[in-house]
Amino acid sequence: MKRFLMILGFCALTTPAALASDSGVHLEPMTPDHRDLPSLQHGAKLFMNYCLGCHSLEHQRHVRTAEDLGIPTDLYQASLLPAGADMGSHITNAMPADGAKNWFGAQPPDLSMVTRVRGTDWVYSYLKGFYLDPSRPLGVNNDVLPNAGMPHALIELQGVPRKVCKQAPEGGRDGLTGQPMTSEQCGFIEVEAGTGLLSAEEYDAAVYDLVNFLDYTGEPYRLDRQRIGVYVILFLLVLYVFTWLLGREYQKEVH
């Protein structure tokens, strides 16, 4: 029993959230919803337009995506299907592996299972953590994953993010004036007004939809599994009743 509890404790400490917490990274909470089809459809559109050029979803097929997300085949083919691909193929891109290594230092990873490995909170916070950094080869850095070799693919939507200093609450009040005490703290990410296509709220919603879609691709059968699980539990409950009644009859013969 003690060994079993130790294993459970180790598993809890090695979850994505726990690992991020241990590394000191602040993650914003993000709860996916695979029943929200408009969100998933918008996320699929964002991925195809902004992410597919570098990243792929090798474990997901176009036809499965269209069926699950309720997108008519003709609309999917006209709006989301890359040139030269067919509905039965996996969601891949034409970026050569050798070229990717030369351009980015490493081949961009496949994102089919990114939320299963990192967690939705991590991916959501990562996409919101970019800021300008002239010292980096691609001109940007990231709060969640410092020195990441990835450009800010969504900068057109968000706008130009910069790190700034602000007067932040320090705690307590000034003994003479009674005013709350503040101090200059740096490291805040602020977007230059008018440089993005979306407002801050709209960008947050867009990132949510994109991460929601990526979480769906990591487990596209989740809703089916949950629905079947309910039927299995109900079956086991009914089976238990009949098993208990049968056992009671056996006990009569024993006594």
Please explain how this structure is put together.
There is one protein chain. This protein has about 260 residues and is of the alpha+beta class. The chain folds into 2 domains: about 1-135 and about 200-220, Cytochrome c-like domain (Cytochrome Bc1 Complex, Chain D, domain 2); about 230-255. The chain is built from 11 helices and 6 strands. It has helices spanning about 1-15, 15-20, 35-50, 60-70, 75-80, 95-105, 115-120, 120-125, 155-160, 200-220, 220-255, and strands at about 55-60, 90, 130, 140, 160-175, 180-190. The strands form 3 sheets. It has a two-stranded antiparallel sheet with strand order 1-2. It has a two-stranded antiparallel sheet with strand order 3-4. It has a two-stranded antiparallel sheet with strand order 5-6. Strand 3 (about 130) and strand 4 (about 140) form a beta hairpin. Helix 3 crosses helix 10 and helix 8 (about 120-125) packs antiparallel against helix 10 (about 200-220). The longest helix has about 35 residues, at about 220-255. Residues about 5-15 and about 20-25 have low confidence and may be disordered.
Number of domains: 2
The total strand number stands at: 6
Main sheet: which strands, in order across? Answer: 1-2
* Sheet of most strands: 2 strands, antiparallel
Instruction: Count every helix, treating DSSP H or I runs of 4 or more residues as helices.
Output: 11
CATH-defined superfamily of the largest domain = Cytochrome c-like domain
Principal-axes geometry comes out as extended
Give unreliable regions as ranges: 4-15, 18-23
**CATH architecture classification of the largest domain:** Orthogonal Bundle
Give the mean pLDDT. Answer: 87
Main structural class: alpha+beta
The run of helices and strands is HHHEHHEHHHEEHEEHH
**β-strand amount:** 5-15%
Share of helix among residues? 40-55%
CATH topology of the largest domain: Cytochrome Bc1 Complex, Chain D, domain 2
Cα separation of the termini? 36 Å
Rounded Rg = 25 Å
Just give the CATH class of the largest domain. Mainly Alpha
